[in-house]
Each structure stands twice: as structure tokens, then as C-alpha cells.
Amino acid sequence: MIKQIVAVTSMNLRSLPQRIGTAWVIVIGIAVTVAVMVSVLAMAAGFQQTLKGTARADRAIVLRAGSQAELESTIDRENAQTIMDAPGVKKDEAGRPIASAEAVVIVALPQKKDGSDANVTLRGVGANAVKLRPEMHLIAGRMFRPAVRELIVGKSAAAQFKGLDLGSHIAFRDSEWTVVGIYESGGDAHESELQGDAETVLSAYRRNGFQSVTVMLDSADAFDRFKGALTTDPTLKVGVQREADYYAAQSRNLSKLLNLLAYFVGGIMALGACFGALNTMYTAVSTRTREIATLRAIGFSGMPIVISVLVESLLLAIIGSVIGSCAAWFFFNGNTVNTLGAGFSQVVFHLTVTASLVVSGIFVACTIGMLGGLLPAIRAARLPIATALRAS
Amino acid sequence: MKFIPLIWAMLWRKKVRTLLTLFSILIAFLLFGMLQGVNSAFKQTIERSNVNRLIVTNRISITESLPYAYMSQLETIPGVQRVSHESWFGPYYQDPKNFIAAFPVEPDREFPAHPEFVVPKDQLAALEHTRDGAIIGAGLAKKYGWKIGDRIPLHSTIWVKAADGNSDWDFTIVGIYEVPTERSREDAMFFNYKYFDEARSFAKGKVGWYIVQVKDPSQSAQIAQEIDKRFANSPDETKTQTEKEFQQSFMKQIGDINLIVTYILFAVFFALLFAVGSTVMQAVREQVPELAVLKTLGFSDTRMLVLVLVQSLTLCIVAALLGLALADVMFPMLRNTLGVVKMPPAVIAEGVLMAALLAVATGIVPAWRAKRLVIVEALRS
Amino acid sequence: MTAMVSLKNVVKTYTRGKQLVEVLHHLDLQVADGDFVALMGPSGSGKTTVLNLIGGIDQPTSGEIIVAGERIDQLRGGGLARWRSNNVGFVFQFYNLMPMLSAERNVELPLLLTSLAKGDRMKRVRAALGVVGLEDRAKHKPSELSGGQAQRVAIARALVSDPKLLVCDEPTGDLDRATADEILHLLQVLNREYGKTIVMVTHDQKAADYATHTLHLDKGRFVEERQKTEA
């Protein structure tokens, strides 16, 4: 049996170059489907990755109860202090809590690409923010000084917006702010922000309360103790989340949309590719009608015939998916896309064509190949030999 | 015409193959309808923006508010017909997933400034007389099954009530508005600014943004500049844009949807070109003996070219129309995710044009071959 | 008698690869109106070529061809196609019917090229089917017909636009003896009672016996002409 299968299959594959025209139909149909699915999923993965980015299990974020995002939340000074002094919060050598009560506001700035305005987040951070976020590094310039209108900008923000180079000035709220440093922070959402001293930002915006408090915990396990202390405090009305959970929730909507796009559009395209594959394989079988009938007249059983057709179909499908994945990788890997994140401001994220996406692509392709090859394969195996031998 | 039975018979010579090709084309145009439909719908929203209205926001960003005092100043600017304002309430109903676009407004300003909103006068009057009254869009009413007279509690994600320190606000539905020219805008809710401003615990005396209705749209640019000049160097500088520019900049921030749609459709049609082209080539090749006989009977070369092209056109256009029809049926499903309601009819016309182009692109070479067919050679084979 | 078909000094050459092959060498031929001519000869003799030239589906390399009063060697493209649809009916060895059309739609095909209305077209179709004796099979597809029936449909198609000349290429080649005789008898009726001029290529002597004249071709030249008296 194996010998039969190998013999028929290799005969089939050797005749493939004659049918190269129709074979391209399967390859291209699948390549295109896989390319689209993989790139859109890469967008979704990239977005989630960016938002989740540098989330740590031992960091927690506190918002006002019921608020879904920092922009919706307010925490007054007293409450902010209570939160930072709560049990479970790690302290530095000087005994101060490694935490930051932050003011989060939006600034509209012109974009480099076309000059039109887009929203960018300005985060006023507390004194101990540097210890809170060790993943942040300055890559140019220096840190801002407290009580002075100075800003550091994330590298994605600097790349996207006009006027954010070192030393440039941005004017809003009656005064000028100077960009004194550029930072990177592990490719996460903070790289799309501007950061300054919390008190300076608050006074410039004439506000007197923060949007959120982020704390470093003694350890990841200290979370429950920390949360318990805050939720049982009658003076506080807050929601406490692990950083990772907070970011996951932030990215949920857009991720859902991108996943929907990938599977809906990809699914439809896969169906189309299936029809194309069926068509091609039916044609492939009909051009080989006499050859197949002769084989069967000689004595080859149906199974090797079926397998040879399926092998052809799968092979073409895999070639198609490799081409599609390469195209997606070539055109899009590493590309940055920016869009409205939660909280109305732009987030830059990088598309990543991961190995698992490529594998998914191959899986989809093989499914299409199987479906496209099965029926024609069965028909080939069941051709009435006599009539087939007479066929032109 | 009289050739239809012949063309139809030639198309269906191999039933399975024609059906498969038809489905491939159908699917491609289903995608076309949905994607291009979304693209078009977004563009239309921008196009339909009222040219008579300007949006005045805080120059820093839309999330910063403006003082109520600006209203009287705006009214004095020449060319201004009416001033209204809106603020972002940001509530959800029962579950954070059920987000609602709700705006506290002054009804006697807001509704005249939006003549495209259709609401019975008595319902408007009811809003003015009911402190916690609300007028909701027909789409919103349908979604939650709300009727006039219902009392609904909403939870605001931003605004806290001074009286009890919580964010649960109650409303009584007193009216339902419709926007016949643009159904996708029927999902919002309007209630009394007075109720809002008195009850909220902070930011009193402020509004989110102003809406300025101008008398003459050709004056929009000047009036916008005048407004921003008036408030320049004040603690709350303004940025004034036409409603259309405002929508556009918002759309742009979401991303270059047009580019993504174009990219996907390009990929799809590329693949389709191959698939259909290959099928038509194959079909014509198999038809050679029959084409030869037709020529023998006296069908001219040109007629043969037309015959093959018409076959191609029939298949592509019928399949495309089916796919577009399916897209039209499925389109309203996108309402919740994307806010678009109806597939713009222009998309159907575009689709048919694309189908014709596809037919010609895939059919022209086989049709030419049919035209140039030499009878004696073809009969020999 | 007037000549229905007249070939004068006709030469036909093909290019096969790099070689020029002359298939017909300065041929002269006359077929009178009302004749039933059988063309015979070994394979490669050029008899099918002569048939194709007479029927207007091929052009001579040089020489004159006059059929039904027209110089068809001077007609081209659309003009030649039009001439064919008005003046010639073809009958092939393998019937060459459209497999997905019914018998009557097959017969209707030549009439689609005229300006006749649907009603008139169907009248003629029915008449043609009546002549070949197949009215009751009008709605059947070729796959549902026997070999003889299919050939009759083909003959009906050849008749339907009332051409003066019928051109037949081995019309009985694929049929058994009895059916072949039926078909040949039908052709004879068409010749004797309907006045059709028929030129038929055949390698079957029994078929040639139905004709009024037999011509022999060998290597592109006529070998002898045997006049047959009516039996």
C-alpha cells in the first residue's frame, strides 16, 4: 500500500508543472488569506503587547470606584496619601512609599505626518515615580526638575508629534513648558506619553486632585492585603487592580475589534480560498482523468489516488501560507501603527508577526487545502474506469 | 436578447465549476460590500456634517471644559445665529459594557441648533418642564426597550452627585427623537444641563464644548477665527472648527481605515483575478470544439468575442449582486461595534463596476482567443 | 446546368513546422446544381480540405472558388461568416451538437443570426425537425438521443436556414450499418425532393453509392471521375 501511495503521489507531483497555471490559484488564494489574517492578528497582538507591555505582578493601580480609565477617575489629596500609606506598599531606604499619585490630562498636539492635531496623554508623576517604574530609562537629555515647567517625552510620542524634540517649547495653560528629556520604557504605552511633575501639572491645570495612584507592592502576594485594606476603609471609595488586569481591560475593546476583523474577514477569505481550491482540484483531477483511470485499470486501489490528490492540495496550501506569512512579515513586522487608545489619546504599537501566528496561518491553510482537495480526491477515486478511459 | 439561452447554456456547461466560481466571486463581493460599506459610511458621516455649525473646544483638548460665561460672549460675535453647548456625561446602563452617549444641554438652544433632529414639540416642552427628563434617540429606545414614561438609572463614570456622593443619576424619559437623514445618530440621549450642573459635585459652571450655529456657512472660517481671537490669551483659550473638520480629525485619530480597507480589498481582488481568470481560461479551452461549430454556422469572429465576454460579464455581475445583497442584509449587524447602520447605495454601484472590470480583465484574453479561433484547426482537435 | 460549385486552379499549402506542404495541386472542380457528389480517397489525399474550401471554412492559397454564384475566395471575416450562414449547411462525423442545448435549441442556432422573430424561428425549427422525422424529440438533449437521432438533429440544423448547399464530412462514419443507411437515404431525399446540392466526403463505398457522382482524390489531385447513372 505504501509503495502504491508513494508511486502515485510522486507521479502526480511530477505532472504538477504542467498544471502550474491552475496550481497558482490555490497558492495565491491561500497566500492572500493568510497574509490578511496574520497581519490583522499581528496588529491585535501588538496592541495587547504594548498595553500589557511592562506590567508587573507586584504593581497595582488604584482608581475611583466605578471608573474604567484614569481619565474618568478623581482621587483627592487626602485619599491619595491614605492609599500610599496602606499596608503592603513597598518602602524605599528612606522609608517613603514607592508609589506615585498621578494627574492624567490630555493635550492636543500637531502630528508630524500631516500637521493635524491628535490627543496625547500628559502624566504628572509623583516624586518617587522613578523608583516605581524601573523599566523607564532616559535615552536623551535629563529628568525634569520639580516645580519647574519641564517635561520628558516618550520616544514614540517624540516620533509621532511635532515640536517634541529636546529643548523645544510647548505652550499651553498660560505658560511655556520645555522638553528636557526623552525616555523609553520597554515598548509599553508610557512611551506614547509626556511626563512632568505632578504638582506642576496640577497647578497649571488649576486642579486639586489626582486621577490615579500606582504603587509598588512588597511582593505580588501582598496584593490581597493591600486591596483589602483599601476596600474596607470607609473614607475611601476606590477600585484596586493589578497592573496587568488594568491594561488588559484597557485593550479589550480594540483587541476585540481587531480580532473580529481578523476572524470575520479572514474567515470569509478562507471560504473564498476554499472555493478556489475546490475549483482548482476538480480541474486538476479532470485533466488527469485518463491517467487516473489507467492507473486504476492496472490495479491501483482508490486510496493512493485519494492521498495523491490530497498531498498535492496540502502542498500547494502550505506553500501559499508560507508566502502569505512572509508577505505579512515583510510588509508589516515592526511597523508602528497608532490609534486611539482608551482614554482618548493616541497609543503607538508595534506589529509583531510571531511564530505562533505563522503556525496558525499554516493550520488555516492546511484546513483549506484539505477541504479543497477532499471531494475532488474522492471523485477521482470513484471514476467509472471505462468511461474515464474514453474521455478526451 | 435571443442569445441568452445560448449564453446561459454555455455558462452552465460544467455546473460544479460554474457554481464554485460563482461562490468565490460572491464571497469577494460580500467582503467588498461590508468593508467598503464601512469605509463609505464613515466618509458619509463626515460629508453629512452640518456646514452651518462650528464646534468650540478648549484649545488644550476636548477633555478640558470651558466656562459657561463664554456663551454670552459668543452670541455677540457677528454672523452667529445661535449658541448651544454640550458636555460629556459618560454613563453606562447597569453594566459598564452598556455605554451611552449622553449629553446635558439646554433644550431651547440645542434642538433648534440641530434642525435634523425630529422631535414632537410637546416632548420638547416636557423636557423643559421635567427636571430629570431626558429625550433619547429612537435607536437607543429600541436597543433597551425604553418608552416614554420609563425611569432609568444611569451610572456616570465621571460625575459624582454632591448630595449623596455617588454617581448614580436617575432620569425620566419624556421624548424620543429621530434623525431621518442619518439613522446612525439616533443612539444618543439629551437631558437638562440645569439638573446636571446643580447636582454635580465639581466643575460647576462649566460646559464641555460649545456649538455655534452660523447664519452663512461661507463665513465659517472667518467666524471661527474671530472666536479664537476673542478668547486668545485668556485662561481658557479656544479652538474652533467646523463640525466637519471636527469629525474628520476624530476619524483620523482612529486610524487610516481607508488604507486598511483598501489593502484588504486589493489582496482579495488580486486572488480573485487569478481564480476567476484561471476558470474562464479553462472553460473556454474546453469549449473550443463548440466555438468552432458556432463559427461554422456563421457566427462571426466579433460575435464570438462578444459571446465569451458576455458569459464572463453575466457570471461576474450576477455573483457580485448576490454578494452585495448579502452584505446589505448583514450590514446592520455592525451597528453595535461600529455604529454604522445602512450600507450606502453607492457601494452597490461601485461593486457592479468592479465586477464588470473583473469580467473584462478575466475574459478579454479568452474572448480574444475565441475570436481568433481558426475553424479547421479547432475542428481537428 | 448551372454550376453550384466551381473550383479553378486551386492550390492549398500548409506550413508544418518549417516545411511548406502543398496539399492541393492546381485543382479544378465543377459541381452542378442538384448534384449529390461523393468525394473519396485515401487519408491525406486532401478530400477534407476540398470540403472545407467549398464550405467556406478555409481559404485557398491561390485560385478561384465560386459557390452559389459568389467568389468566396475573396470574402473575409464577417462577410464570409454571413455567406456561410445563408448558403451552406454542415454535417460532421461526430454531429458536433451543443451538449447543453435541447434538440430544438440546437436547430435554432443558425436562425439566431437572422432577424427572424421568435415565432418564425420556432416554425422553421419545427419544419426542419419534421423533415428529418424528429418532432417528438425536440426537447431532448443530445445525451438523450441515439447516434442516428443526433445526426438527424445535425442535419435539421444544417437545413433550417434553407441553404442551397449541404456539406457533409463522413456523416455516417460513427454509425452502424442500418442507421447509416437511414441517414444516407435521408440525404438522398433532400437531394432528389428538396433540390439540395450535396457534397459528401466518405471512405465508405456503400455510402458513395447513394450519390449521383463520385470523385476520387489522391495526393491532392483528382484521379478519375466516374459518372453514375441513376439506378
Count the E strands of chain C. Answer: 10
The assigned CATH architecture of chain C is: 3-Layer(aba) Sandwich
Distance between the termini of chain C: 21 Å
| C-alpha Rg of chain A (nearest Å) | 30 Å
Q: What is the overall silhouette of chain C?
A: globular
Major sheet attributes of chain A: 10 strands, mixed
Low-confidence stretches of chain A: none
Record field, number of beta strands of chain A: 14
> From the structure provided, what is the oligomeric state, counting identical versus distinct chains?
heterotrimer
- Write out the CATH superfamily name of chain C: P-loop containing nucleotide triphosphate hydrolases
Entry keywords:
heterotrimer; B: 381 residues; 2 domains; six-stranded mixed β-sheet; 14 helices; 12 strands; 55% helix; C: 231 residues; alpha/beta; Rossmann fold; four-stranded antiparallel β-sheet; globular
Descriptive overview:
- The complex is a heterotrimer of chains A (392), B (381) and C (231).
- Chain A has 392 residues and is an alpha+beta fold.
- Chain A has two domains: 192 residues, no CATH class; 171 residues, no CATH class.
- Chain A has twelve helices and 14 strands.
- In chain A, the strands form three sheets. In chain A, strands 1, 3, 4, 5, 6, 7, 8, 9, 11 and 12 form a ten-stranded mixed sheet that branches. A two-stranded antiparallel ribbon of chain A has the order 2-10. In chain A, strands 13-14 form a two-stranded antiparallel sheet.
- Chain B is of the alpha+beta class and 381 residues long.
- Chain B has two domains: 168 residues, no CATH class; 120 residues, no CATH class.
- Chain B is elongated.
- Chain C has one domain: P-loop containing nucleotide triphosphate hydrolases (Rossmann fold, 3-Layer(aba) Sandwich).
- The longest helix of chain C is centred in the last third of the chain and has 16 residues.
- Chains B and C meet through helix 1, helix 10, helix 11 and helix 14 of B and helix 2 of C.
Topology:
The complex is a heterotrimer of chains A (392), B (381) and C (231).
Chain A: H1 2-14, H2 20-52, E1 59-64, E2 75-76, H3 77-84, E3 99-110, E4 117-125, H4 129-132, E5 137-141, E6 150-154, H5 155-160, E7 169-172, E8 175-184, E9 194-197, H6 198-204, E10 209-210, E11 212-216, H7 223-231, E12 238-242, H8 243-287, H9 289-298, H10 302-332, E13 336-340, E14 346-350, H11 355-381, H12 385-390
Parallel strand pairs in A: 4-9, 6-8
Antiparallel strand pairs in A: 1-11, 1-12, 2-10, 3-4, 3-11, 5-8, 6-9, 7-8, 13-14
Helix pairs in contact in A: 1-10, 2-8, 2-10, 2-11, 8-11, 10-11
Chain B: H1 4-11, H2 15-47, E1 53-58, E2 66-67, H3 70-75, E3 80-86, E4 91-92, E5 101-105, H4 107-113, H5 121-129, E6 133-137, H6 138-144, E7 151-156, E8 168-177, E9 188-192, H7 193-199, E10 206-207, E11 209-214, H8 220-230, E12 238-242, H9 243-254, H10 257-297, H11 301-330, H12 335-338, H13 345-372, H14 375-380
Parallel strand pairs in B: 5-9, 6-8
Antiparallel strand pairs in B: 1-11, 1-12, 2-10, 3-11, 4-7, 6-9, 7-8
Helix pairs in contact in B: 1-11, 2-9, 2-10, 2-11, 2-13, 10-11, 10-13, 11-13
Chain C: E1 3-16, E2 19-32, E3 36-40, H1 47-55, E4 62-67, E5 70-71, H2 77-87, E6 88-91, H3 103-108, H4 118-132, H5 147-159, E7 165-169, H6 177-192, E8 197-201, H7 205-208, E9 213-218, E10 221-227
Parallel strand pairs in C: 3-8, 3-9, 6-7, 7-8
Antiparallel strand pairs in C: 1-2, 1-4, 4-5, 9-10
Helix pairs in contact in C: 4-5, 5-6
